[in-house]
């Protein structure tokens, strides 16, 4: 079941993100990976900045989460993670389909360039890769990430998205 996450779900969201993000260890640049991958105060700040989390629940327990953040002319998918022991079961696809129906705006997704599994997932679900110049511009405009992360990330765009020049 997919449901809107509430304040009481913060601990579950935190645990899912940090469990699933272990897949990045040894894959993304070493200077970008740390434990925990997302600190609790960072999660709270993301929520305060407008990231709305949706969760996939099985037997009363969250096992996948995905956030959406309205950024004016676009929406961002943020922090899409499925618990390690429940990957490859369609949870991410169900969350993505649900979230994309929540907005009529173009959707952008940022992820690590080395996270080939994530890129493949979004490409399979109809998103396209922004070119290098567009990627840099979009990351600077819609995300608050350091330059090093911009260098080592990609942006995927919903079908038909065209960046304004």
TrEMBL record:
Keywords (A to Z) from UniProt: Transferase
Pfam family, one: Acetyltransf_7
Family matches, as InterPro entries: Acyl_CoA_acyltransferase (IPR016181), GNAT_dom (IPR000182)
Record bears the keyword rRNA-binding: no
TM stretches of this protein: none
All residue ranges annotated as the N-acetyltransferase domain in the record: 1-146
SUPFAM superfamilies in UniProt: Acyl-CoA N-acyltransferases (Nat)
GO terms for MF: acyltransferase activity, transferring groups other than amino-acyl groups
CDD domains per UniProt: NAT_SF (cd04301)
PROSITE patterns assigned: GNAT
Tagged with keyword Transferase: yes
Protein's UniProt name: GNAT family N-acetyltransferase
Organism of this sequence: Cohnella luojiensis
């Amino acid at each position: 079941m997919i449901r809107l996450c509430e304040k009481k779900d913060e601990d579950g969201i935190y645990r899912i993100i940090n469990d699933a993000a272990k897949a990045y260890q040894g894959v993304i640049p070493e200077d970008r990976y740390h434990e925990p991958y997302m600190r609790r105060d960072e999660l709270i700040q993301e929520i305060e900045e407008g990231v709305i989390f949706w969760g996939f629940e099985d037997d009363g327990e969250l096992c996948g989460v995905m956030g959406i953040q309205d950024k004016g002319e676009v929406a961002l998918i943020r922090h899409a993670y499925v618990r390690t022991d429940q990957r490859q079961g369609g949870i991410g696809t169900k969350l993505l389909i649900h979230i994309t129906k929540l907005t009529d705006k173009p959707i952008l997704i940022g992820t690590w360039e080395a996270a080939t599994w994530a890129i493949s997932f979004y490409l399979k679900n109809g998103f396209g890769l922004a070119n290098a110049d567009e990627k840099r511009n979009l990351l600077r405009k819609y995300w608050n990430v350091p330059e090093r992360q911009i260098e080592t990330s990609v942006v995927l765009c919903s079908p038909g998205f065209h960046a304004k020049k």
